[in-house]
Fold these 3 entries.
Entry 1:
Amino acid sequence: MSRVLVTGGQGFIGGHLVKALLDRGDEVVVLDLPSAPGGALALHGILAEVELIEGDVADREAVGRAVAGADSLFHLAAQTLVGPAAADPLGTFRTNVEGTWTVLEAARGAGPAAVVVASSDKAYGPSDSLPYREDDELRPAATYEGSKAAADVIARSYRDSWEMPVAVTRLANVYGGGDLNRSRLVPEVVRAFLDGRAPKIRSDGSPRRDFLHVSDAVAAYLAIEAAVIAGPGRGEALNAGTGEAHSVRELIGLIREKAGSAQEPDFEGEGSPPGEIDEQYVDPSKLADLTGWTAALSLDEGIGEAVEWYRQYR
Ligand SMILES: NC(=O)c1ccc[n+]([C@@H]2O[C@H](COP(=O)([O-])OP(=O)(O)OC[C@H]3O[C@@H](n4cnc5c(N)ncnc54)[C@H](O)[C@@H]3O)[C@@H](O)[C@H]2O)c1
C-alpha cells in the first residue's frame, strides 16, 4: 500500500482522483482549506477513508506534515477561477505560485517517488498555433494563466536542479459529475436546463475548447504518476485532452438535448469573455506515446454522464 498526498483533494478533479487512489488500495492524505460541508470528499462519501489535513498550501508547517512519508504526491490545490484571479492577483499568486514552491520544497526534503503538479492548458496563453503542443512557448496573458505558467516552470526547475521525480500536467477543460463550481460552464448550464431556466452565457457561443471528461483526467494523472516512477515522465510537461475542439454553442446544444430542455440559452457576450482564449485544444500525442493514455469518452458520452449525475444530485 502506498501513502499518497493529494493537495486540493476537496476540489472537483482532486475528489475524483482521491476516489480512484482509494479504489487502488492506497492510503490517502488530503491537504485542503478548512472546508464547508459539500467538499468533494463528503460528496463522494469518502471523507472517513482519508486523512484530511486542513491547512493552506502556502503554509510550510501544514504542507510539511502532509508531505511527510508520502510515496507519491499530486499537487492540485489552486485558486482555479479566472474572474477571481483577475480580481485578486496577489491571493491567486500566493496560492498558485507560493503554494507550489512550498509543496516542492517540502517534497525535496521528503523524497517521494513521484510528484505530479497541476499546470493547465491555460499556462500556454493565447496562441494561433493549434493544437497546443508541449514545446510551444508559455505566453500567459491573464492572471490565472500567469499563475499556472509560473507554477509549471518552477515545478520543472526542481527536476533540473534537484533531480526531483516531477512532472507537470497541462489538462484541457475538465468537466463531469461532481463539479460544484457553479461559475463554470458545464455545471451551470446543466443545472439551468434541469431547473427549467435559460442558462446565461458570457460569450456568443463561438469560443472553442477541448473538453475532457474527469474520468479521463484521473486516468491521465495515474498514467503520468506511473511514468514518473518508471523514469521517462520525469521533468516532462504533458498535455491531456481529446485533441478536438468543440464550440461552446455545440456543447450547450448537447447538454440541452441530454437534459431534454426546451429552453433557449441566452448568449450575452460578443466573442469570448474578457481575458479568455478564443480557441484552444491540445495535442495529447506526447502523453499517448509515453504511457498509452488516450481519452476514452466521447463528448456525447461524457456529457451524458454529467447530465445524469446532476439530475441525481438534485
Ligand atoms: N477544472 C479544469 O478544467 C482544469 C483544467 C486544467 C487544470 N486544472 C488544474 O487542476 C487543479 C484542480 O482543478 P479543479 O477543477 O479540481 O479545481 P477546484 O477549484 O474544484 O479545486 C481546487 C481545490 O484547491 C483548494 N484550495 C484552494 N486554495 C487553497 C489553498 N490556499 N490551500 C489549500 N487548498 C486550496 C480548494 O479548496 C479546492 O478544493 C487546479 O490546479 C487547476 O488549476 C483544472
Entry 2:
Amino acid sequence: MSHTTERCATCGQEAVAIAMHVDGTDLVMRSCDNCDTRTWALGGAPIELDTALDEVGLRAGRRR
Ligand SMILES: [Zn+2]
C-alpha cells in the first residue's frame, strides 16, 4: 500500500491517493478532506465504491 497526493477532481485541493494491489491489479482510492469526496479506480479506470468493495471481497475470499 502506498500513499501519494493528487489534485482532487471535484474541488482542486490536494487529495490523498492510496494504492492497493489486489490480485495484481491496482486498486486506488482517492480521498479529499476538503470536499469529502472519495473515488475509486481499478486498473486506471474509475469504478463505483460498491464495485471496489466487491472486487476486494471476491479476490480476498479466494486467497487462502
Ligand atoms: Zn475535493
Entry 3:
Amino acid sequence: MMENKDRCGICGRKGQRLCPALIGMICTSCCGAKRGSTLECPPRCIYFPFGTEAYDLWLKVDGSWMPKVARYIVDAVGRLQFDRVLSQMSSSNGKNKDQWEIALPAAVYYMLSIDRDSEGKTLADRWEEEGWKGLNNDERYMMKFRRKSLPAIFEIQKVTDTQSMRCADMLDPERGPFTMFDRSLGRAAIPYSRFLTWLTHYPHFSRPGGGGLMIPHSISHDYFDELKRRARVKRNESSEKLQFYIAEHFGECCELVTSKLSAFNKRMISSIDLNVCRAFYEVVSDLSEIEDILNSKPDFEREEREIEEGDPEGTVYYSWLRRGESKEIEASMPATFRYDDESQGVGSLGTLKLYTNLLVIEMFGRMKFDFAKNMVKRYFGHRVKFSHEKIEDFSDQIGEQSETREEGRRPSTPLEEKDEVPIEIQQAVLEQYYRNHYTNFLEDNIPALGGLTPREAARDPEKRPELVELMKHHIHQMISLSREKGVTINLDWVLEELGLDELL
Ligand SMILES: [Zn+2]
C-alpha cells in the first residue's frame, strides 16, 4: 500500500511530484507529456506552464515554440516569402530593434493562421493534419491558443505586480478586462498606456507578441478613427473585421502611429507662439522720469544681472511681472495659468531694459508683446518714442527637437531645470502647483469637453465618457511626471471631486 502511493499514477514508475490533477504522485516525464492535454491541470499547480504560478516554465516553452514555428513556416513557404511578409509587417521607418520584436510575431501569426492557401487552409491546419510533427506536449498545448492570436490595441488599466496587469482590448471590447503577464511591461507600465500588438489569450492569462507599439493619448482617438476608415468598418459592425484588417496591414498600421504623431507634434508647435518679440523706444524725456515710473509701479522689479551679450555696458534690467495694472493680461488667459492671489506666485510678462536714451521691451509670444506695447503707452506716454520692433520665430528649431519626443508637451512647472532643490521641497512645490492647477481645471471650460467644465461633464451622461478619456490622459501624464521627478503627484482627489469611481 505504502509503495503504490509513491509511484506515478500513470506509468507506475517512481513518482517525483505531487499531481493535483491525479491527486497522487506523478513522474516528471508523464507530467511533461500530459499536462494540459490529457490531465486537467488546475491553474495554481506550480508545474503547469499555462497556470498562474509557473510563468517561468511558460517562458521556457515560449523560447522553444517560436523558433520551431518560424522554421516550419520558412520550410513551408520559402525564405524569400518569409522575409517579404516580415518586412510587410514592420513599418518601413522602424529601423530599431523594438520594431522587429513586434514584427516577427506579427509575421509568424499571420502566416500561421490568417493567410490561406488555394484550398482555404492555413499552415496551422496543415501542420495539425501532420499531427504537429516536431512539437512536444507543451508546445502543442501552446499552439492551441497561439493559432487564435489576433491584433489588439490594449490599454493597461491597473498594474497588479511586477509581472501582471489588468488590461482591456479596445479592438475586442466584448471580452472585458483580462490579466496580462509581461515582466518588462510590468516594470515600466504606466496605467492607461495603450499599445498596438498581437495578443494571445490563454485560459488564465494573456500575452502580447513581443511587447507593443505605444499609441500616445494625444493621437489615440484620431488613430482609431483612421483605422476604421481604412478598414471600412462602419458603426456597430463587429470588431473582427478591423482585427483582420490590421492583421494583414500590420506594418502600415505601425507606420500610421508614427505619421499621426509627427503630424500632431507639428500642429502643436504651430499653435504655440514661439516668437521672441522686442520693441525699441527712444527716451525723449529725462531718464530719471522713466526710472521714477519704474520704481513706483509694482509691475517692475529691478534685476541684478550680468550684461547680456550685445547690450551696452551700463544697461539696467527690470523683470516685468503680471502685477499692478499688468495683471489685466490674465483676464485673457486660460484659468489654469492664472494666479488668484499673490501667495500662489506671480506670473511673468517679460523684460524691460534701460540704457541712457534707449528703452527695450522683450516678450515671449505676441499676446504678451501687444499687451506690453499698450502698457508702455499708458505708463510712459510722450516720454518715449517708438523706434522699431524685431520678431524672431523659434518654431523651426523646436520642431526638430520634438520630432523624436514621444508626446507633445506638458505645462511647464515652477521647478523645471532646478534639480538641485531637495526632493521634499520639490514634492511640496509640485503638489501645491498641481493642487492649484487642478482646482482651476475643475471649473475651467475645456474645449475637449465641448466647452463644458469637468464638473458639468461629470453630470452629463453624454459627455461623461469623454471626461473619463480625458482624465485617463491626465493620470497617465501625472504618473510619467512623478516617475521622472521621483515624486508622487496623486490625482485621486480630482477623481473623487468628479465622482469618477471607475478610475479610482
Ligand atoms: Zn509516469
